Amino acid sequence: xxxxxxxxxxxxxxxxxxxxxxxxxxxxxxxxxxxxxxxxxxxxxxxxxxxxxxxxxxxxxxxxxxxxxxxxxxxxxxxxxxxxxxxxxxxxxxxxxxxxxxxxxxxxxxxxxxxxxxxxxxxxxxxxxxxxxxxxxxxxxxxxxxxxxxxxxxxxxxxxxxxxxxxxxxxxxxxxxxxxxxxxxxxxxxxxxxxxxxxxxxxxxxxxxxxxxxxxxxxxxxxxxxxxxxxxxxxxxxxxxxxxxxxxxxxxxxxxxxxxxxxxxxxxxxxxxxxxxxxxxxxxxxxxxxxxxxxxxxxxxxxxxxxxxxxxxxxxxxxxxxxxxxxxxxxxxxxxxxxxxxx
Length: 343
Hints:
Elements: H1 4-8, H2 41-52, H3 75-78, E1 81-86, E2 93-98, H4 105-108, H5 117-120, E3 121-126, H6 129-145, E4 154-158, H7 164-176, E5 182-184, E6 200-204, H8 205-208, E7 213-218, H9 230-241, E8 244-253, H10 254-269, E9 274-277, H11 281-290, H12 296-317, H13 328-337
Helix pairs in contact: 2-9, 2-10, 6-7
InterPro entries: P-loop_NTPase, UvrD-like_helicase_C
Keywords: ATP-binding, Helicase, Hydrolase, Nucleotide-binding
GO molecular function: helicase activity
């Protein structure tokens, strides 16, 4: 995360436009609340782990799967983590865990705990969106009939705002088949409220911000696994998971969801800690450039290039074109990206 000075820039005299200072004997301008009451420590750890790509498999030719990271390692301490092993510094290997004092005792004290970590966060993979919708509807029916939750205690989040109306139709149909009402916030309900009595709230990620519920279902999480503007997608996943006050179910379709679930398992199986090699300053700058937001023109250009390349691959696969027809420098570049023994 860039500093306020980097985010807001300087005036004509070279002075920062915004500074958050903590001067002695003066009120601090930046306060980090020490205890997180909104989220369970397990959901928060998973949200940070997936949001930063800490357990993400390194892409071919890359040393790390990280998507983004704090420029200043000490910020991890500010948001409630402590070093379990290693060294919290640029270029060092480190393992981080949530500080016990940064979560309320009803999460951390076994004698007082209201929720256990095995039930707080769960991932589910499905073959298609219909199967996903049916499973979620079954779970919500159980939440209402057996778990004593109210409709207002449940929130369904769709990560992709552009397809939210179409995706809502699947969950709406599945819930109606079980006699459960639902609404897409701001579309077939008031734009000023998310939750409605006796109706399950469904919302895209932008309307979900600032709202929370005891039980959160994140649908189509596979949308956040890979692709262009990956920092934005992983931030979307972080925001969705942290809407949960108690339980969160992260659902998705296909191989992308399976691989996202594997990231979760790595974090869970290590005891909900974050273990990674902290990149140096140059590596952080590079990953920020790779995963940055793209303009519409940039996206169109990349999509055209991918389409053209896919067409060439299809012609080679069909035997219409020989690899020898490609320029030697292109073949050499491809061999560096995908070695010949790569399976």
